[in-house]
Amino acid sequence: MARPKPPKQRTPVSIERRRFLRTGGLAGAAALVAPTELVGAQQPAAPPPSRPVAPPVMTMAAEGTAPAEETLTTDSSGSDFMVDVVKSLGFEYICANPGSSFRGLHESVINYGGNQKPELLTCCHEESAVAMGHGYFKVEGKPLAVMAHGTVGLQHAAMAIYNAWCDRVPVYIMLGNYGDAAIRRGADWYHAAQDVAAMVRDYTKWDDAPRSLTHFAESAVRAYKVAMTPPMAPVVLVLDGGLQEDGIEGQGKLAVPKLTMPVPPQGDSAAIAELARLLVAAENPVLMAYRLARTPAGMPLLVELAETLQAAVIDKGGRMNFPSRHPLNQTERANAVIASADVIVGLEVTDFWGTVNSLRDQLHRSTRPLTKAGAKLVTITTGDLYIRSNYQDFRRQAQVDLAIAADGEATLPALVDAVRRLVTGDRRRVFQERGAKLADAKRAAFDRARLAASYAWEASPVSTARLCAELWAHIKQEDWSLVSSYYSDGGGWPRRLWDFSKPYHWLGDAGGGGIGYGAPASVGAALANRRHGRLSVAIQTDGDLMYAPGVLWTAAHHRIPLLSIMNNNRSYHMEIMHVQRMCNRRNRGIDRGQIGSTLVDPNIDYAKVAQGLGVHAEGPITDPKDLGPAIARAVAVVKRGEPALVDVVTQVR
Amino acid sequence: MRMKHLRLVAIGLAGAALSAGSSSAQTRTAPRPEASAAEPAGNADKGKMFYRKAGCYQCHSEQAQGGTQGPRLGPNPVAFRIFERYLRAPTGEMPPYSVKVMSDQDVADVHAFLRALPPAPPLSGLPLLQP
Asked: Is B24:B66 a contact under the CB 8 Å cutoff?
């Protein structure tokens, strides 16, 4: 792949740091007329406004009278030190929609920090900024930093924070806030709160509002450590406007604290030995993984365990846990293998109950177990180490025989060793027979998937199977990464037809089920893939893109190569099916279920939307024959280092 | 025999909607018997319209090829009696279609539409689907 072009605008590292403030009252005026001035902040520096601007009033003491010899500039500010600390944590990027409550930090990032490590990425919505961090982490295994207004920015960001929290992904969020009422100007009042983090405290792992720079330094390092320790989750630091903007004099001796990452918790050795005994003795053991592969080491470990036992694996797709074409991958036959299993191990499976039971969505909801009587159920999850009350992401309480409260990936090496020690020659022969049967079943499932994909092959709108097959033909020779697709978490077409074998081939889903994750998370993941020269591909749904399409501009502006293939079914289709259920259940209007959930009349022209945001785009494509050539042209653009979008009108599912 | 098959499909889907496509394909390798003598005459064109209007396409897709939410229904649908019984009283996740919203004639029309669907092109002729 061609190396990506540098972004259009780059701030020279050697820029004179204080020139901006010295040129006049622009900074003071910016916050007063927030929306227009903020957009203006993207443009080359505007001349100072001609109307008189009141000098910034920083303290009560200064309020009454301005000193005769007023000091108007400073060479040191709190946010410069904040940047020192942030740099020490190794952030590559910091995403933000600009906002006055963190203008001090913003300026320090671009001037004092030289706009490198972290480099500031301009986002058009705080939800996009956080979701970019979500996608970025899943490729890079490192968090991305986000700056936002403490009130209006955080409210926009909240949905993406919730998704990241449900998905146990760390995002490092710094919020501006003018805590001291005496220094607030007009809009600052709306941008200030007593307890800024309160509104997201139920779905962040930790937050703090440091009162001094030393306090900031410790909390910043602690926040990183907390966010990155499994179970991982977003964290919030509230940065006081005064602390950012004031000089560092009087703050004492400042030092950047050392970061030492904790080792993730491994399962208890007696419990691991017990589980190994169960697995080796089992006739039909099943290994089920959801968010198991936390790092690239996770998948090879699960492969090793599965191959040692010749056990069936169900990859529930929260991460790239297991190669899709591996003979032991029985994901498409999940219910069949669960029904015959005598030992089932859930590895970081959030909804373990829901995978071994079914809950029927009819007028009277009924449940039944999917397992056979006497099957032993075991879980290994950090979910047992962390739970909150309000939001119900913890799912239904599963009744299991052994619950190991530990990190799944960290526990696998010991489990593999324990299993190996117990395997005898007799058991190995049994395992081999079992493995051969599973391999046959896998081959048959793959053939069935290919056959199923052939139906409606020529259909217009394009069938989702055809879309995935056409796309696969264009990417399989590349070093590709499917950065998002709503239909791939377990049995969707890409997972049934494509050969997923590398840790970055699949990144999992939104976590919290909040639509609007796909587009920005794809851009964030593509940003991380860029450095590795990978071809990032998103199967982009229409409803998802419409939440905040501005992220396509961010991709264009920062030269983030991403191939977005629209799965445009012109509706919020999941919801149509839900309403249809209600119509049927109530015996009325079964032909009206789509009202309120379609995106037609007018049809949205996504190619035009994307072009308007500076992205190469084609479509709408309705004839499947046009799809291949359009994908080829878009791949060429992406290989040049830019984003491209192909709008494909598809069947509903 | 047929009922057993239906129940199996239902079980396959109830736990994990995502496995739907494969569950159905799995049970569909044998050709379906022709419509029985007792079956009311159906109009495939009307059935096509009703299939769309009644929302069958939502879960079974526009050409009844199946998708992530429901199995493939045609060509070669299940025999009429079983088809009708399933619509009236589904044993799995599918929403019920009572006589009040779908007459016996509508059921016959949809069944005729499913029977009239063209077969899939031979798999061997689709290079993109070769392993």
From this structure: yes
Q: CB distance B12–A336 less than 8 Å? A: yes
Domain count, chain A: 4
CA A592 to chain centre: 35
Strand A285-289 versus strand A343-347 pairing type: parallel
Q: Omega into A561 within 30° of 0, i.e. cis?
A: no
- Mean pLDDT, to the nearest integer, of A311-322? 96
Asked whether the beta carbons of A348 and A290 are under 8 A apart, the reply is: yes
B 61-90 residues inside an 8 A Cβ radius of A: 61-63, 65-69, 72
In chain B, the percentage of residues whose pLDDT exceeds 70 is: 71
- Structural domain boundaries enclosing A509: 455-649
Per residue in A395-417, pLDDT tens? 999 999 999 999 999 999 999 99
pLDDT averaged over every residue in chain A: 91
Q: What is the CATH number of the domain that holds A472?
A: 3.40.50.970
Q: Which amino acid does the sequence have at A616?
A: H
Q: Would you call A12 helix, strand, or coil by DSSP?
A: coil
SS3 (DSSP) at A399? coil
Does residue A71 form part of some domain? no
User: Which residues in chain B have Cβ-Cβ distances shorter than 8 Å to A365?
Assistant: none
Mean pLDDT of A420-432: 98
β partners of residue A379:
A346, A403
Cα–Cα distance for residue pair A552/A612, rounded to 1 Å: 10
Q: Show residues of chain B in contact with A445, CB under 8 Å.
A: 22
User: Which of chain A's residues have a Cβ under 8 Å away from the Cβ of B53?
Assistant: 590-591
CATH no. of B2-26+41-120:
1.10.760
pLDDT for A653: 87
ipTM score:
0.84
pLDDT at position A22: 36
Residue extents of the structural domains in chain B: 2-26+41-120
C-alpha closest to that of B7 among B22, B18, B29, B23: B23
Q: Are residues A245 and A301 in the same domain?
A: no
- How close A102 comes to chain B (CA, Å)? 45
Question: Where do runs of H (alpha helix) occur along B16-79?
Answer: 20-26, 44-53, 56-60
Domain membership of residue A263 (yes or no) is no
* Degrees, nearest 5: CA angle A321-A542-A592: 115
pLDDT for the residue B26: 35
Domain boundary among A253, A288, A305: A253
Confidence at residue A69, expressed as pLDDT on a 0 to 100 scale: 87
pLDDT band at A130 (very low <50, low <70, confident <90, very high): very high
Same domain, A430 and A291: yes
Q: How far is B38 from chain A (nearest CA, A)?
A: 27
Nearest to A454 among B19, B55, B121 (CB): B121
Residues of B in Cβ contact (< 8 Å) with A471: none
Please tell me the distance from the alpha carbon of residue A461 to that of residue A601, in angstroms, as a whole number: 17
| Tally of residues, chain B | 131
Interface of A with B in 34-53 (CB under 8 A): none
What is the pLDDT, as a whole number, of residue A41? 34
Quick one: A249 and A286 in the same domain?
no
**CA-nearest residue of chain B to A353?**
B15
**What is the helix, strand, coil percentage profile of chain A, to 5?**
45, 15, 40
pLDDT at A492: 87
Residues 579-638 in A contacting B (C-alpha not used; CB under 8 Å): 580-581, 583-585, 587-588, 590-591, 593-594
Contact between residue B15 and residue A341 where contact means Cβ atoms under 8 Å apart: no
Owner of token pair 């996009």: A128
Residue A67 domain flag: no
Task: Quote the strand ranges of A179-231, DSSP E.
Answer: 206-208
CA-atom Rg of chain A in angstroms: 27
